[in-house]
Structures are given as C-alpha cells and as structure tokens.
Amino acid sequence: MSEIPNLLTTMTFIPLIGMLVVLFIPKNSDGLLKGAALITTLITFVVSLPLAFNEIFATSANMQYVENVEWIKIGDYFQMNYHIGVDGISLWLVMLTTFIMPIAVLSTWTAVDKATKGFMALLLLLETAMLGAFISLDLFLFYIFWELMLIPMYFLIGIWGGKNRIYAAVKFFIYTAVGSLLMLVAIIFTYYYAINSNIPMEGFSIAQLYLTKIPADMQIWLFLAFAFSFAIKVPMFPLHTWLPDAHTEAPTAGSVILAAILLKMGTYGFVRFAMPLFPDALAQCTPYLAGLCVIGIVYGSLVAMMQDDVKKLVAYSSVAHLGFVMLGVFALNLQGMSGGMIQMINHGISTGALFLIVGFVYERRHTRAIADFGGLAKQMPIFATIFMIVTFSSVGLPGTNGFVGEFLALMGAFESNLRWAAIIATSGVIFAAVYMLWMFQRVMFGELKNPANQELKDLNAREIVLMLPLLVFVFWIGIYPNTFFRKMTPSLEQLLEQAQPKQVAVVDVEAPQLAFQPQQD
C-alpha cells in the first residue's frame, strides 16, 4: 500500500530517533538543537503524507497499514501485541499531529532560551507518544503511550512555564494520573471478561474486545471508569479546572500542542474505546453526558467573557468548543459524529493559531493583560489581519473551518433525542462571538495610548510562515470540507453500528476469577 515499509512504525519512532540525536548535540548549540528538532518533525510530516493521499479510506472502513507483532506473552494468561493501524477516524488526527509539531518547534526559535536541549528532546518524545496513542489497536499499548504523554508535558509546563508553573504542572499530573489509574483498572476487567469468553484473543486487540459480551450492569462501571479518564483529558465540565492553569503557565509551544493535539486524546478515547466497548452503558449515560457538554459550553463561554488575560480567555474558550465536539459525538448519528470529528481538527487549527498569536504579543510586551493593549491594528497591520481571520474561525463564521463542525454537531444533536441539548448549546455560538470579538476589539482597536505599544513591530517572516499553513486549512475546511469528510465517513458508519446497544442483561460467559469478583445476576 505504501512504498515506505512499516510506514506507521517509521513515522512514530522518527521523533524518538531525533530525540536521541538531540541528546548528543552540545547543550550550548541552541541553533543546532532547534534545527535538529525542526528537521525531525518535518521528516515525520513528510513520511505521514501517504496516509493523507491514500484513497482507500474513502471506500473502506477497515484498518489500513496494519502491523501486528506479538510483543509480550506470559504462558496462556497474558499477551500484549504491538498492534497498530489507522482508519478514517484516526487518519486526520495523525495528520494533525505531524502537521502541528513543526509549527510548534518553529515557534520556540526566540521564545525558548534556557535548557534548549531538554525542551527539544521532550517535544520529540511527546510526538512519538501522541502518534503511538492514535494508531494503537491494542488497548494496553494505547495505555502505555497514553501514560508516556504525561511525562514530557509535565516537565514542559513545570520547567519552562510561567511563575505558577509548578502548581499548574502538578495539577495537570494529578488529574491525569487519577484518571489513568481508573482506566487501567477498567482495562484489566475488560480483558478478563474477554479471555473468559469464547472469543480468541490476541493480546488486548480492540477489534476482539468489541465482540466481548459484558453484562449491562458491569458495562456501566467500566464505561464510567473510561469516561472519567477521557473526560479529564477533553476536558469536560466539571473536570476542566486543570486546563486554564496548564494553558496559562505553559510555554507557547506547550500551549499549542496541548490545545491542538493532547486534548484530542480524550475525545478520541471516547470514540475509539469507551463508546464501542460499552454500547449498553453508552445508551444509558448519553443524556447525562450531553448535559455536561451543554453546561461546559455555557459555563466555558460565560467565564471566558470575564477574563482579563488573553491566554486564559482562549483556554476557557476551549472548554466551550470541546463541549460542541462531545455533544456531536454523543448524538450517535452520522451528522453529529462527523461534526464532532471535524471540529476536533478545527479546534486544533484555530485554537493552536490563537495561542501562537498570544505568544507573538507576549514575546514583544511580556504581558497578556487585555487592558495593556489597544490600537495594535495601526501598529501591526499584518498581525491584525491574521488575528481577525483566526478570530472569525474560532467564532464559526461561514466560510471558515469553525462553521461546518459546529453546525453539524448541533444538527446531529437536534436530530437525535438530544434536541433539548442542541437548543441550549446554540447559545454557545452567540457567546463565542461575544467574548472573541470583544477581546479582539479591545486588543486591536481604539487609541494607541500605551507608549510601550507604540514601539511594537509587526510580524516577521518566521512568524508569518508559522501562520500561513494554519490559515490555508482555516479556509480549506471552511470552503470544501468534503476533502476530510469522505475519508472518515466509512469508519464512522462502522463505529456507529458497533456502538448500538446490545442489551446484554445477563452474564453469558465465565466471569473473571478476580479477588474483586463482579456480582452476577
């Protein structure tokens, strides 16, 4: 299928090889360290391009580029495979990752000036972990990559962040670790239900785990454990409180990666694992989860309006935008699911661009307070134009990428039994226009009163190069989204079929023999 042998493995571990190269470069060679990291991420992006151009995703829901190798086996009791592959659901998230990482590295050129070797090494390790999580078809392998992501992000915030970086990093670590522990327990239970069934298991293969019949009452507990872990990462209300701190304190590159890619791990986890593994529990929990989505949309929007820090405003806007993503996903129909999936990509592009914009201003003024600006459009016309486009994208103006995702998510919810949620969530569209346009107006227009702002220089060539690829996708997805929809539709249709309730009311397999034996009817 591809001229590159083992394409997914090659793509995933190129950053890890690049990290090793970076570690051998002298620590004082900042330019060489940043150049090595940039070249590594660009090579990874180029290697991933055959995925985007492969037309098989438009006609087949099956996993492509599959690699399945027995990795760990202990008798007949435990097996874990190195099992990877990609379909229309993970395709664009993989491409988003390889696309954003060179931009994130380039954004550090003048922003990172201490311990550059460690920063670049952690970025590359993080890329390997993120790619591995998106392509894992073995549930335990996914968990390993999921946990691996935690380490570099913790250090990126804790070492290179702002003045409250330690608090933000520890809070991020604790939230994620608690959720991960619950998911690990649920993985063990799910695996033991599977191996005691009549289904031949090869490790923790999700395709085989989908076939496992788990009693509906036990599904509730397992689904909630997975959902808790993924909801922290999304984040969904009320588990979102780590995000504003992490975003505010993280360096620009860290904020871009966190918003564009890491938050998608939670939404992807729901779609790939929690929903098809526990369909009966999903059917029972959907109205409550949709309610949390609506609260997140309204709450995130209202709190964003009250912020006087640009970066914190963008952080709370993420809570609202990802509420739309999850509302579309929980609609459990093709319109809503398609809207949710494309909105994951849209949020990565638009919010990633917003954090870059905030970073550009912060490098010049070393403040993020909205009150410290005003009238910048006169001083920085190129910056103002790009900022305006990205703001319209975040608001969801027709013709930009933000419109199609929110529209389909709301339409999907309206056509499902979540009509009440769609009606309330529509207010979030209005709120987004209020807080984004009001912020833009206060920063860009008015009189140029502050003397410090009169010395500001417009974007340089490097910064324009950073933004142009993002602007291309703002309009590409906004004008012709079918490029992306047609390759995800077959896989989404298959997923929706797998997520249909099976109504397994009784245990029809031998229950797992564990010390914490689940009760049977």
What descriptive keywords fit this protein?
globular; 521 residues; 70% helix
What is the strand and helix layout of this fold?
Blueprint: H1 7-23, H2 30-53, E1 64-74, E2 78-86, H3 88-106, H4 116-135, H5 139-160, H6 165-195, H7 206-209, H8 216-233, H9 242-249, H10 252-277, H11 279-305, H12 310-330, H13 334-365, H14 376-379, H15 381-395, H16 401-415, H17 419-444, H18 461-479, H19 482-498
Antiparallel strand pairs: 1-2
Helix pairs in contact: 1-2, 1-4, 2-3, 2-4, 3-4, 3-10, 3-13, 3-19, 4-5, 5-6, 5-10, 6-8, 6-9, 8-10, 8-11, 9-12, 10-13, 11-12, 11-17, 12-13, 12-16, 12-17, 13-15, 13-16, 13-18, 13-19, 15-17, 16-17, 16-18
Q: What order do the helices and strands follow?
A: HHEEHHHHHHHHHHHHHHHHH
Strand content: under 5%
Q: pLDDT average, as an integer?
A: 89
Main sheet: strand order = 1-2
Overall geometry comes to globular
Low-confidence stretches: 505-521
The percent range for helix content is over 70%
Total strand segments: 2
Radius of gyration from CA coordinates: 23 Å
Separation of termini?
Answer: 49 Å
- Broad structural category: mainly alpha
Main sheet attributes: strand count, strand direction, barrel closure: 2 strands, antiparallel
Number of helices, counting only DSSP H or I runs of 4 residues or more: 19
Describe the structure.
- Helix content is 70%, strand content 4%.
- The protein is mainly alpha-helical.
- The chain has a domain at 278-502.
- It has a two-stranded antiparallel sheet.
- Helix 1 runs antiparallel to helix 4 and helix 3 packs antiparallel against helix 4 (116-135).
- The protein is globular.
